[in-house]
Write a structure and sequence with these properties.
Length: 530
């Protein structure tokens, strides 16, 4: 998210406030913040730090970038001492020697150790440089009682700095250090979680993982209302933007900025300017992103897999059939895409993480690659037509009753496996799907689907799902006897924890609108916006 414009994220800000405040009370919980590029991870940190003030806490924020170990050591020391002295009233300059000299008055042992680290680094005699550097936080706490919060942004780049035995040294410190809190930030979700589980999974000092998600439907709507002075944007188009952007802050920002300047009737033109034009912000962004695959040894395979997923051919068995690749070779290519966070896997399905990138890949990059001429006019017209088609498809689906949309979705199931949250579910191929009517006020309509090996009974709740609804539905389901029966309630509103517990007791699955939209995504169908 653009750093100068911040919206919501209260949940994450509250967690940071709670964890950093607890550090001074003797409770230390390290944090790993992960999420896709431009999802707003750094913005959350900056927003928190802009309001945070505590003379007993030293914030050490470092963006990790390609550089020499010597340069990193100097930057770490400089930030640590500068922020240590920031509450002293001394006019400060960004000069290491100046900061060391001024620190001697308040923390002489720390200043002495800093000088020793720098001398050893200059002479190439530092054998445990990373450990020695981080241990400065302990020394400054012993001398002054101040606590350190060390923030490493794009943390995964630490590996490229060349520190020997870095994780082994750090893991020892994480167990010992009780007065230093570490916050690591990374856009490489897969890699970071692998590092945490392999190298930094500890009994004490472990990391709490915060995955920064896009705005949910409700927050996306609030954003659009506030940004476009609701009701300036009509509801169908607002809902389409929520679906198209997936709630990604940077896309909402770019599109709403353009809408404010040009008006909602020009959405196709706005998307053309952003996505199709060579100079478009998102066209350049995605073109640069794609280069990481084009420069790799198996570029054709990676681009082909991404193309297929973008075009709705996202079942792994279908990809294998179309590309005619041996299973082992295809698995290697898919694993690489997973490691780069380009795609995620949901059992038998693959999904491009960035839905706007998927649209660009299908209707911009792919069409330009197929073109036999240098004339953009036909491609341009094709792009605009596809944008209009997509908008009209969304509007058409939005007017259908939820029951009808769910019935259409169930007809697409072909015994695939998907993963919803931590549960794997088989989407049975139904030989019969029929509407149901329930005899209670809360749940009135539903569906029954019969396959060769199972029966699904589904109910739909427009308003708030209650425990009474669960009890009533459980009674209705007892009328149908089958050895493998799936009882499912789809609620368009958030489901509270007590109702979820009641549903678990009754062996009823509860899906909210996000779960439903996850399945719709896998079949390239528009979201339900409740």
């Amino acid at each position: 998210m653009l750093k100068e414009r911040f919206f919501d994220r209260k949940l994450y800000l509250d967690i940071l406030e709670k964890r950093i405040s607890a550090l001074k009370d003797g409770y230390r919980q390290n944090i790993a913040i992960v999420g896709d590029e431009s999802i707003g991870k750094t913005s959350i940190i900056f927003k928190f730090l802009s309001k945070f003030y505590d003379t007993r806490t030293i914030i050490v924020y470092l963006e990790i970038k390609p550089e020499s170990p010597d340069s990193f050591i100097e930057r770490f020391i400089g930030v640590l001492l500068y922020n240590f002295l920031s509450a002293s009233g001394i006019p400060l300059t960004e000069d290491i020697d100046f900061l060391i000299n001024k620190s001697r008055k308040f923390a002489p042992k720390t200043a002495e150790k800093v000088r020793a680290i720098l001398n050893a680094t200059a002479k190439r005699k530092q054998t445990c440089a990373f450990q020695e550097l981080l241990s400065l936080c302990d020394m400054i706490n012993q001398e002054t009682g101040k606590f350190c919060v060390v923030i490493f942004d794009e943390f995964h780049n630490l590996e490229g700095l060349g520190f020997k035995n870095m994780y082994r040294e750090w893991s020892k410190l994480l167990i010992q250090q009780k007065n230093t809190l570490y916050i690591i930030i990374s856009s490489m979700k897969f890699k970071t979680k692998a590092i945490l589980s392999k190298h930094l999974s500890l009994l004490f000092g472990n990391f709490e993982v915060l995955t920064i998600e896009p705005f949910d439907i409700r927050m996306s709507e609030r954003y659009l209302e506030q940004k476009l002075q609701w009701p300036g944007l009509n509801m169908p188009l607002r809902n389409f933007l929520v679906h198209f952007t997936g709630g990604c802050p940077i896309y909402l920002e770019l599109i709403t900025d353009a809408l404010k300047n040009k008006g909602e009737d020009n959405l196709a033109v706005i998307l053309e300017n952003l996505l199709f034009d060579t100079s478009g912000v998102l066209n350049q962004r995605f073109s640069n992103y794609l280069k990481r695959f084009l420069d790799s040894p198996h570029s054709n395979d990676y681009i082909s897999i991404l193309h297929l997923i973008a075009n709705g051919k996202n079942k792994i068995k279908d990809i294998a059939h179309i590309l005619r690749k041996p299973k082992k070779e295809l698995a290697l290519r898919i694993n690489h895409l997973l490691e780069l966070d380009a795609v995620t896997r949901s059992a038998d399905f693959l999904k491009i993480n960035d839905r706007v990138f998927g649209f660009w890949l299908k209707f911009v990059y792919q069409e330009k690659q197929r073109s036999l001429t240098f004339d953009d006019k036909n491609q341009n017209a094709f792009f605009k037509d596809k944008v209009e088609d997509m908008i009209q498809e969304f509007f058409s689906n939005a007017q259908k009753p939820l029951l009808e949309r769910a019935l259409e979705l169930l007809r697409l199931f072909e015994d695939e496996m998907v993963q919803l949250e931590r549960k794997k579910i088989r989407l049975n191929h139904f030989r019969e799907i029929k509407p149901l009517e329930f005899k209670n006020r809360g749940l009135k309509c539903g569906l029954i689907g019969r396959s060769q090996g199972s029966v699904w009974i589904m109910a739909f709740k427009q308003g708030q799902l209650s425990e009474d609804d669960i009890t009533s539905f459980a009674k209705e389901c007892k009328k149908y006897r089958h050895k493998l029966k799936r009882n499912i309630i789809v609620s368009l509103q958030e489901i509270d924890s007590n109702t979820k517990l009641k549903a678990m007791e009754e062996k009823i699955w509860t899906w909210d609108v996000n779960n439903l939209n996850q399945i719709l995504d896998l079949y390239s169908k528009p979201w339900v916006i409740a």
